Write a sequence for this structure.
């Protein structure tokens, strides 16, 4: 079944693209193949399978994030601005899901890097406001570092080589996602599939989980130390940069970009702590990025383009609470778990994390203001996302059990 | 004999990747990609993996032809003005790839590793520095072909053919991407 989670979105993107002139039929085909892929991803068994010499395996954490990615893609198409052509969006979403599924199910680490390279090339070749070079650089660099990491992990004769493998793995994944120091500009006028948010909020989560569960599995003990240290270092850097950048930004696309960065900082620290709680917190945050922050940004985009006066409404307060990770939303459980894990490792780290988390309380109110005066459609979308996030926040044990962190 | 064949393959792959770095027009880019594919295929042939070699060669040929049709700038575009630093880069990266392939990485045979590292490194150099979308995509296609070979080295021998197929398909897909409008992504150089 794991290979079907890859096959359905590939077929869906091709069929949807071929039928793009017949609007309704194309959307129906995308929906059918998307649902097929979701079903295949949700019911795949974790055992290894082989097809044509290639090994496929969908481990439990990657499976959970893959399913969340399918839901996020559905939400992205659902909350598209009124009057927008949904066919290119649905086809792009299925293309992205195919890339995510390839990363999640392929056991060969060089092929994972190849999938990232192909996605980087195709993504950068989509029509957008920024140049090809600007868009391809970070993800392509990430893919190339992943190739180096895979080759060195598979066989190296020296300790230095093993350490470089750990370093290349972390730097490769962060570069591919587009985190600091490879951060790109976020322009709300740019179509969502061609924007860096596609990496930050959609393709990145699965790549991070696959790095933590499968790609890092082959690292030696010496490489493991370098891997964890670089993860925590980059996590702190991203968290700090997110907070400082957020404070210096006006309510707009930049503030959203730094909010993604803040969440990713926490994710990287969670993965770098190499503990069950840290991993659980990272997975909860990744689900929160996929099912809350990304669709909320997509909902806020039309208002960001208009650059009207920031306004805060009643729903805005709830949005701010959810984005800041307040109780009872999903981010709260994640932050608690992360603080517990960091306290056990080193209390200064926990103190820094707590400061970083608290800094986002006022910033989240400014983020919620970016919606301006929300239309009925936006209010419905926001309510739907808040309900989903609330459900995960009220019962995080379900998700933690799914990813094997309870 | 097989050793000499594998070595020739590695040198050919490095030469092709170097031409990719030095070329700015469609014939040069297509020739570079063809030589990369031929070198990688020759290396696979020396190792006795005929299906993998054929797939890599076919993938390289198809993507070079597709790229030739898609690239708007005519001619060879080889060794244009200001190409001395790129020439030096090719020599340095070739030496670096030889060192990595013989001293640091241990999977597979050394000509295979050297060929993969040379193509990935030079392809990366071109992809990450060029403003030209077609040159970038052609370099990415060369890296994809090298990944097809490398994935076979990392995995079991049965996976070699499937990995080569994945690399070849990725290379064709990258070269088949439509060109962006000039303002968005394809100034030359």
């Amino acid at each position: 079944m794991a290979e079907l989670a890859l096959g359905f979105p590939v077929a869906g993107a091709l069929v949807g693209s071929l039928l793009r002139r017949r609007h309704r039929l194309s959307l129906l085909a995308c929906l059918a193949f998307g649902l097929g892929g979701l079903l295949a991803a949700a019911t795949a068994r974790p055992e290894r399978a082989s097809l044509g010499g290639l090994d496929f395996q969908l481990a439990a954490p990657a499976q959970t994030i893959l399913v969340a990615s399918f839901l996020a893609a559905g939400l992205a198409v659902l909350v598209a601005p009124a009057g927008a052509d949904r066919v290119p969006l649905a086809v792009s979403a299925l293309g992205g899901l195919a890339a995510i599924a390839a990363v999640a199910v392929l056991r060969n680490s060089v092929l994972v890097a190849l999938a990232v390279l192909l996605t980087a090339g195709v993504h950068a070749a989509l029509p957008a406001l920024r140049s090809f070079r600007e868009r391809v650089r970070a993800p392509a660099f990430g893919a190339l570092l992943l190739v180096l990491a895979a080759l060195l992990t598979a066989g190296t004769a020296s300790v230095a080589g093993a350490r470089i493998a750990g370093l290349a793995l972390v730097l490769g994944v962060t570069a591919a996602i587009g985190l600091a120091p490879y951060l790109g500009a976020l322009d709300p006028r740019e179509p969502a599939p061609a924007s860096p948010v596609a990496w930050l909020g959609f393709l990145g989560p699965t790549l991070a989980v696959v790095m933590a569960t499968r790609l890092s599995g082959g690292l030696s003990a010496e490489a493991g130390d370098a891997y964890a240290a670089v993860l925590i270092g980059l996590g702190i850097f991203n968290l700090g940069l997110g907070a400082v950048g957020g404070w210096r930004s006006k309510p707009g696309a930049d503030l959203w970009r730094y909010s993604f960065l803040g969440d990713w900082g926490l994710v990287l620290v969670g993965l770098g702590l190499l503990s069950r709680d840290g991993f659980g917190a990272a997975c909860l945050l990744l689900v929160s990025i996929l099912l809350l922050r990304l669709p909320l940004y997509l909902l806020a985009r039309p208002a960001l383009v208009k650059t009207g006066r920031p306004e805060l409404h009643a729903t805005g307060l709830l949005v701010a609470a959810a984005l800041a990770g307040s109780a009872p939303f999903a981010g709260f459980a994640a932050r608690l778990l992360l603080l517990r894990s960091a306290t056990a490792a080193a209390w200064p780290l926990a103190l820094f994390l707590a400061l970083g988390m608290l800094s986002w309380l006022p910033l989240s109110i400014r983020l919620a203001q970016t919606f301006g005066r929300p239309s009925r459609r936006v209010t419905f979308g926001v309510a739907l996302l808040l309900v989903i996030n609330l459900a995960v926040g009220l019962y995080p044990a379900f998700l933690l059990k799914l990813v094997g962190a309870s | 004999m097989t050793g000499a064949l594998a070595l020739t393959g590695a040198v050919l792959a490095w030469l092709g990747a170097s031409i990719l770095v030095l070329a700015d027009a469609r014939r040069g880019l297509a020739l570079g990609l063809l030589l990369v594919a031929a070198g990688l295929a020759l290396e696979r042939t020396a190792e006795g993996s005929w299906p993998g070699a054929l797939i890599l060669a076919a993938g390289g040929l198809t993507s070079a032809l597709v790229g030739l049709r898609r690239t708007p700038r005519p001619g060879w575009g080889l060794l244009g003005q200001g190409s001395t630093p790129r020439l030096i880069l090719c020599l340095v990266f070739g030496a670096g790839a030889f060192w990595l392939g013989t001293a640091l990485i241990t999977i597979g045979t050394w000509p295979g590793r050297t060929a993969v590292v040379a193509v990935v490194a030079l392809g990366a150099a071109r992809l990450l520095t060029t403003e030209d979308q077609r040159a970038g995509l052609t370099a990415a296609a060369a890296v994809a072909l090298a990944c097809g070979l490398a994935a076979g080295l990392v995995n079991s021998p049965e996976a070699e053919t499937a990995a080569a197929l994945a690399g070849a398909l990725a290379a064709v897909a990258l070269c088949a991407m439509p060109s962006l409008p000039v303002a968005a992504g394809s100034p030359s150089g």
Observations:
- Chain B has one domain: 2-176.
- The first helix of chain B runs from residue 2 to 22.
